[in-house]
Design a protein that fits this description.
Length: 358
């Protein structure tokens, strides 16, 4: 991949905890249904999966939030469930219910015969999207590639859809932990190849969404979420050296000190913990990304600004903070409230960064 010099590398500098003039900001699910232009492009594609599988349209929706707001990073428009889809589970989306698989994992033999997809063939449409977006960005901001964590992918593959109690996945965790470990091992291998291919195609940083890490018991978290993510980060250090990795384990504030030992560059933080506590927990080992409650974006702009000010003050002075939400933007979020947040971070954050007086 030819390297276009980045015009704005604040995000990458913050991940490396190097000096920045202001705190970079991007938002999980910054492209999505809260934007009218996204709904229009999605309608042209026909449905969400078709949008993901058409690189030119995936590129278009990736850039939409950047054209509206002064964001410091772009994130590939795709989904974490592309990997199990490429493993043959048959991903589809049920209206108002979210993702589901035609062929969820039901028998031990289903796990044993899962293939590890070759990203450049079976997931070629994702790599083409990365290449297309990278070219369209022309160095404007860095591009984030992503994947689901092995545990989070396993929950969808075993349950067959989203879940509240994770009964099937957890039964496997308690009844047949070796079998779950086998599944997670295959997913770790597949995810390492997938993320390394995204880096080769032009992703500047990689993020792992461990959305359901927080539903595990502490031993389960260490064995089925943290250990495989640590192995994944180590493999990526070989396959994509120098590309920073962000791990986001939702609902896992108690595990921040352990996560900080994983070898990642940064940890995502949800809104249940203050950035001051999170910073103390990781003790300078990694950068932090977060952590506004996405529901706060439904409040008035003045309240949003006050919350942004609080979070910046809680992180305090110095680099190593990437401003973000604690989870994805909620459907129905007023787009002008997102503008108010991004503006507030731009205006208020220089006081905490390099070159600020005092
Ligand atoms: O952050 C971004 O802008 C990048 C895009 C992105 C999407 N999904 C687009 C999407 C990312 C990073 C994801 C990750 C993802 N997908 C996760 C982990 C992060 C998280 O939010 O916890 C999970 C668990 C999934 C699985 C998934 N995909 C679910 C549960 C849903 C349904 C949610 C819903 O609101 O209906 C999706 C669909 C999906 N992925 C949409 C988008 C924009 C909505 C699709 C649409 O109807 O247009």
């Amino acid at each position: 991949m030819p390297t276009t010099p980045l015009k704005n590398d604040l995000f990458l500098r913050a991940l490396r905890r190097q000096p920045v003039e202001r705190t970079p900001v991007w938002l999980m699910r910054q492209a999505g249904r809260y934007l009218a232009e996204y709904r229009a492009t999605r309608a042209r594609a026909g449905n969400f999966l078709a949008l993901c599988k058409t690189p030119e349209l995936a590129c278009e929706v990736t850039l939409q939030p950047l054209d509206r707001y002064d964001l410091d990073a772009a994130i590939l428009f795709s989904d974490i469930l592309t990997v199990p889809d490429a493993m043959g589970l048959g991903l589809h989306f049920v209206d108002n219910e979210g993702p589901a698989f035609h062929r969820p994992l039901r028998e031990p033999a289903d796990i044993a015969r899962l293939p590890v997809p070759d990203p450049e063939t079976e997931l070629r449409y994702v790599m083409d999207a990365v290449r297309t977006i990278r070219a369209a960005l022309a160095g404007r901001v860095p591009l984030i590639g992503f994947a689901g964590s092995p545990w989070t992918l396993a929950t969808y593959m075993i349950e067959g859809r989203g879940s509240r109690d994770f009964v099937h996945a957890k039964r496997l965790r308690y009844d047949a932990p070796e079998l779950l470990e086998q599944l997670i091992g295959t997913l770790t291998q597949a995810t390492a190849l997938y993320l390394a291919a995204q880096a080769r195609a032009g992703a500047d940083a990689l993020m792992v969404f461990d959305t359901w890490g927080g539903v595990l018991d502490p031993d389960g978290f260490r064995r089925f979420s943290l250990a495989p993510m640590t192995a994944l980060v180590a493999r990526l250090a070989e396959l994509a050296p120098g590309v920073p990795v962000i791990l986001f384990s939702k609902g896992c504030a108690a595990h921040l000190p352990a996560l900080a030992e994983s070898g990642c560059a940064a940890l995502g933080v949800d809104w249940t913990v203050s950035m001051a506590q999170a910073r103390a927990a990781v003790a300078g080992r990694v950068a932090l990304q977060g952590n506004l409650d996405p529901a706060a974006l439904f409040a008035a702009p003045a309240a949003i600004r006050a919350q942004a000010a609080r979070i910046l003050a809680e992180y305090g002075r110095g680099s190593g903070h990437v401003f973000n939400l604690g989870h994805g933007i909620i459907q129905g979020t007023p787009p002008d409230h997102v503008a108010a947040l991004v503006e507030a971070v731009r205006e208020l954050s220089p006081a905490y960064q390099h070159g600020a007086p005092g």
